[in-house]
Amino acid sequence: SVRNSDNVTIGRAALALPPFQGNDISNFRNGIAAKNATDLSVQLNSITGINKGTGIALVNSDDAQIGDELSLFGFPISLGNTVSNFVTGISLRQSNDVTITNNELANNKNGIQNKKSDRTMISDNTLTNTKNAAIRIFNKSDDVQVLDNEINGADYGVLASDAIGLNVAGNQITDVYTGVDSTRGDNAKFTGNTIENTEIGV
To answer: Which of 74, 174, 186, 202 is least surrounded by Cβ atoms within 10 Å, i.e. has the fewest?
Structure first.
């Protein structure tokens, strides 16, 4: 748990050379939690739960980076986290300007939840076997970007409510009941998504 802290890295050393190595966290109710932190970096952690709690939880923590990618000699290297077997894989609450990218989430009840958090970038994540919503945006979360994610297996691919300026683009969504569901959201855009094997597309 990290509280009231700035410029914190959880996982790989900021200037280390490959192979990068984060933390192996397993058999806990909750994995990584941060409250009132800024400029937090969470990368290359393997987090496995006991089907309770949350894998990565941010509360009142702005400008965080959860996962990343870098290029080394022209080759992409993922700095994402793996998160599995939690009630919620990644949770943001009242945390603005957060980037969630290149993470792998599997076998969670809820995938990524974005509550009262503005300008979140959710991109290039892989979410498999999610029981409820793979990505959920709700409770007045504005200008959220959901781009180029792969979602396989869920009740909802992307579920949004009270989200103004939502942009859902370039996602691959398969084997879900509803691909994209949005209510009470103005100025939303849904473009270039591939939705297959669903009861309801958008």
So the answer is: 74
